[in-house]
Specification:
Elements (H helix, E strand, L loop, with lengths): L1 H39 L28 H10 L18 H7 L13 H15 L2 H20 L15 H12 L4 H31 L1
Helix pairs in contact: 1-6, 1-7, 4-6, 4-7, 5-6
């Protein structure tokens, strides 16, 4: 009974976070994605659709210029948020004031998934692997592979605004761990830490949005 109650509690935590993420994607997708679809026939206008314009070349940061789609996407996911058009430097670990300010900037180009997103992915992979049950992993692995392949083959995979679906990547692993794992203090502690990191990213975003609304 105790294990079942812990499972239900853990499931609710991740379910709530997932709903928040999906709502964030939905609210954020209305403008520009849905409005672009209505007005220009494509959710990713001006990349495609009526009157499309090639804007990507001038948006590519020096840190990923000349890289393949896969390299640029993986560098962006692993990096702290940055919009620096003058430097080739990228930061993966360690947080500075500039990283925090960039993490809440609109349409940040590198690291746009959040300042703690990469760390959350690494910890989610550890939790996923430690949960075990190879046969049960197959469906979840197919979803993870699908998300990853979609990310690296898209020309704009490095820009989070065009690949918002990748936010689901760590949550797939969290759902798996909650269904078949979380039986030790280590796994439960790791689970809470991952949710805390993802929640911190969401918190930073909402703080920034609240500040913008207040200024208006």
């Amino acid at each position: 009974m105790l294990r079942k109650s812990r499972y239900k509690h853990s499931f609710r935590l991740t379910a709530v976070c997932t709903v928040v993420v999906l709502l964030g994607i939905g609210v954020g997708a209305y403008n520009p994605y849905l409005t672009n679809w209505k007005e220009h026939g494509s959710p990713v206008y001006p990349l495609s659709g009526n009157g499309k314009v090639d804007i990507m070349d001038c948006q590519v940061l020096p840190a990923i210029r000349g890289k393949s789609n896969a390299e640029a996407a993986l560098i962006s996911v692993a990096s702290n948020p940055s919009d620096d058009m003058l430097s080739e430097d990228i930061h993966v670990f360690g947080i500075s004031k500039i990283d925090i300010l960039s993490s809440v900037a609109s349409d940040v180009r590198i690291g746009g998934f959040g300042i703690f997103f990469f760390e959350a992915i690494l910890l989610s992979i550890v939790l996923f692997v430690c949960t075990g049950h190879i046969r049960r992993m197959r469906w979840y692995l197919s979803v993870l592979v699908g998300l990853l392949v979609s990310l690296v083959i898209l020309p704009s995979g490095w820009w989070a605004r065009y690949v918002a679906f990748f936010y689901l990547f760590p949550f797939v692993m969290l759902f798996y761990a909650e269904r078949f794992g979380l039986k030790t203090r280590f796994s439960r502690g790791l689970h809470i830490l991952i949710l805390s990191l993802l929640s911190a990213d969401i918190f930073y975003l909402f703080v920034w949005l609240s500040g913008q609304e207040y200024r208006v």
